[in-house]
Amino acid sequence: MERANDLQSLKNTLIDKGLTLVISSSECYIESTERGVKPLLAILESQKNINGGLAADKVIGKAAAFLYVLLGVKEVYAAVISQPALEVAEKYGIKIFYDKLVPGIINRAGDGPCPMESAVYGVDSPEKALPLIRKKISQLSENKQS
To answer: How far apart are CA 103 and CA 144, in angstroms?
Structure first.
């Protein structure tokens, strides 16, 4: 598989393959069809080195933006990004390119805010956001099982 090594190539791969996430760094290349922040959290916890890498993502909310900061990604393309996520990226020096800027990410049912975006509302650092993101994912997983 040929590695995409620039943001436009990652964007094209994201769209052409119907993916939700593509990340490329000098040490690894990752494609995912998983929705939400789970794939980013899995990458963070696997300790794969994507520091200085590039990413293309279908939807980026504030929680995902914090995870990109922790992962050390330097440039990201987003099909859709929330205003809070854009502010996080700008604050931490991630170059962001996007197609659509929205006030906030909506949940999958379309009837309220994204639970991950809500979980980190008012949080101002990735280190504070991480335990809240983990807790919310755990709660959502428990709710699906019951």
So the answer is: 27
- Which of left, alpha, beta for 59 (phi over 0: left; psi -120 to 50: alpha)? beta
For the record, the structure tokens of 67 come out as 């995870």
Integer Cα distance of 32 and 70 in angstroms: 19
Nearest-angstrom CA–CA distance, 9 and 3: 9
Q: Domains of the chain (ranges plus CATH)?
A: 7-145 (3.40.140.30)
| Per-residue pLDDT reduced to its tens digit, 99-112 | 999 999 998 889 99
Return d(Cα 64, Cα 117) in angstroms, integer: 9
For the chain, what percent of residues have pLDDT higher than 90?
A: 82
SS3 helix, strand, coil % of the chain, rounded to 5? Answer: 45, 25, 35
